[in-house]
Amino acid sequence: MNKEELKLKLAELFPLAGFIETGEWVTLELSSADGKSIFRRLRHTPGLDFDYLFCLTCVDWKTHFTMVYHLSSTLHRQSLVIKIKLDRDQPEIETVSDIWLTAEFHEREVYDLFGVRFLGHPDLRRLFLTEDWVGWPLRKDYEDPVNMIKL
Amino acid sequence: MTEPTVKSETVFPGEVHPTAGGGILVSKIDDVINWARSNSLWPLVFGTSCCAIEMMSTASAKYDWSRFGFEVARATPRQADVIIIAGTIVNKMGPVLKRLYDQMPDPKYVIAMGACATSGGPFFYNTYSVVKGADHIIPVDVYIAGCPPRPEALLHALITLQEKIRSGAGREKIKIENKYE
Amino acid sequence: MFEEVGTTEQGDLVINVGPQHPSTHGVLHLIITLSGETIKNVEPHLGYIHRSIEKMCESLSYRQFIYVTSRMDYLSSHINNHGCALCVEKGLQIEIPPRAKVIRVLMDELTRLASHQLWWAAMGMDIGALTPFFHAFREREAINDIMEETCGARLTMNYMVPGGVMTDLHPNFQKRVKDFILLFNSKIDEYDELLTNNVIFQNRMKDVGFLSRADAISYGCTGPTARGSGLHCDIRKLYPYEVYDQVKFDEITESAGDCFARYLVRLKEMRQSLSIVEQLIDNIPDGDFLAKTKAVLKLPKGEFYSRIETARGEFGVYIVSEGGTTPYRIKFRSPGFSNLSALNHMAKGHKIGDLVAIMGTLDLVIPDIDR
Hints:
The complex is a heterotrimer.
Chain A lengths: L2 H11 L4 E3 L5 E5 L4 H10 L7 E9 L3 E9 L6 E9 L4 E3 L8 H12 L2 E3 L32
Parallel strand pairs in A: 2-5, 6-7
Antiparallel strand pairs in A: 1-2, 3-4, 4-5
Chain B lengths: L14 E5 L2 E5 L2 H10 L4 E2 L6 H9 L22 E5 L7 H10 L5 E5 H6 L22 E3 L6 H16 L4 H9 L2
Parallel strand pairs in B: 3-4, 4-5, 5-6
Antiparallel strand pairs in B: 1-2
Chain C lengths: L5 E2 L5 E5 L11 E7 L2 E8 L7 H5 L8 H5 L6 H16 L5 H30 L3 H21 L8 E2 L2 E2 L7 H24 L2 H7 L7 H6 L5 H4 L7 H4 L20 H23 L20 E8 L4 E8 L7 E5 L1 H7 L1 H5 L4 H11 L3 H5 L1
Antiparallel strand pairs in C: 1-2, 2-3, 3-4, 5-6, 7-8, 8-9
C-alpha cells in the first residue's frame, strides 16, 4: 500500500499517535511509555508485518533526545519511521531487542555514544569505547580537551 | 628526491686476502651481521584499516616484496622482525600495539605506513578516539606518506629501512652511544 | 582492560581470537567459550578501529564529509561515496545528468567486482588455500589500474560528488574496460575450477553456519549474507536508483542458507556485475558529467535517508540537517554491523575451523562496523 493508505491504517489502529508530515516515509511520533506495545503490534499485526528494523539511532537536540527507528516490511515493501522523545536528564526507554534481534547491537551503540539506558536489554555495556571511558561522546555538550583537537 | 643508494646486486661487505691454499675473509663482524639482517626481515601481519589492502597488494604477485627478503609474513610477533603499522591506531588499540611490540625479540624495526599511522592523518581534527600518530606509543624507524601509499612507496620504505640497517644507524647503536654520556 | 584467559567451573575454556590475527579481516576481537573444540559462545568485542567518524562529520561541510566514507568500507569505496552523494542530492533536490548516472553505475559495478575478488582471495586464504590469493590480486590490479587512470587513486578514490562525478572519463577507459571484460570472463571459470569444484573446499563449506530466512530478517542481515538464505533484499532491484532499472541483471539468491550458498551467491554476482558493465560500456551518453551546484552547499531543515547496495549489503546514510553548512547529525547504517550480530547464532555448535569459514563468508570489513 502506498503512503496515504498506510497513514490511514495506522491512524485507525493507533489513535493516540501523532504524525509528522515532512519526510519521504510515514513518520509516527510516540511517547516512550506506550512505545513497546505499539512496536509489538507493528511487528505482529497481519497487514503491517514490519519485520525488518534497518536503522536505530538517536539525535541530541540539546533540550531533549529523540530516538529514531526505521522499520520496513519484507512482505508488503513499505517503510515507516518512528520517533520517540526522551528526557535529557534521565534518558530511558524499553528495549526492542526481543522483537527485532538486530536491535541488540544498535542499542548498545546508542548507550555507548549517548548514554540512553535501555530497560530489559540482555547485555547493556559499552560497545566501541573502553569500559572505563567517562562521558557520552556524541552528545552536543561533550568536551574532551585531551583527545579532541578542534579545527 | 634522492635515489636509493643501494645497488641492484648487494655486495658482501668484506675483503678477501689471498694466501697460499685459499683466501681469508677479513671484515668487521657488524657489517656482515647488518647485511644479513637487512636482507631477511620478516614482517608481522598487522593491518588495521585501508593501508592493509595496499600491504596485501605489495605482497601479491605484481609488486612482490618477497624479492627483497620479506618472504614470510609471520602471524606471531615472536618470530617477526619488522612491524608495519598499516592503518589508524585508536585509543583502544594502543595497549595491544604496545604489547605486540614488547613481544617482538630484538632487533626489531617499525614502519609507520600511511598518514594515519604517521600523525593521525585524515582523522586528526575533532576525533576523540584516535591516537595522533603511532609514534606516541612505540618508536618508529621509517614513515611513509600517502593515504593509502602506493605499493611502490611501501617498497621504497622497505628498501630505505634496509639501507638504514646496513649503515648501522639502528636504534641499538643510538642506545649504546648515549649510555656513556 | 584485557580479558583473562582461564577455565570456568564446568571445564569450559575461554580463549581470545584477535585483535591481531591473520584471519579476522581487520581488528576484530572474539571471546570464544569452548567445550573441547566445540564452540558454545562467540562474543565479538568491537571498537579497535572506532575512529569517531560520525562526530567528525558534524564539523565537515557537505562536500568534505564524503572523503571519510571512502575509508569506512574501503573495498566498496566508490559505492559508499555514491550513497552519500545520493543523500545530499536528495536534500538539495538536484537532477544529475544522464552521463554522470551511467559513469556512476559503471564505477560501482567495477568496485563490486574488485571487492568480491578480494573476498574470494581472503576466503581461500582463511580455509588454507594460498593460490587463490595471487590469482585474484592479479585481476584486481587490472581494475585498480583502470580506476587510477580516471579517478587518480587505487583504493580510496573520492570521485563521486554531489551533482555528478568529479572529472570526465579518461579517453582510454572504454578500451581498457573492454579488454578487462574479455580477460575476466575466462578467469571466473578458472576461479570455479580452483575452489568451487574442489572436494575439500565443499566439505568445509557445506552444512556449516546455517542461517534461516526468518533469522536473517530479524538480525537485519542484508547483501549476499541474506541472499544466501533466500531473502530478496537487493536495493538495486527493490528501490532502483541511477540507471539500474534500465539494465538487465538477475538478483542471485540461494535457498540453502549455509556457507556454500553464500559463496555461490557472490561468485554469481561477479558474473552479473560483469554483464552490467558489458551492457553499459558502449552506451555512455554524451553530455555533462556534473550538474551545476552552488559553491557552498546548504541542505534545508529536515532529515534525509538514502540507501544503496554495497558489496556487503545495504548502506544507509541518514542526515539530520538544521539548515547550516554542516550536518547536525549523520548516521551511517553499515551492513557489516548487522551481519556481525548473526555470527554467534551461526557459529554455535561448530568447531573453530568452521568459525573461520563462517567469518569468511560474512565478508566483514571491520572499519565498516566500527565507523
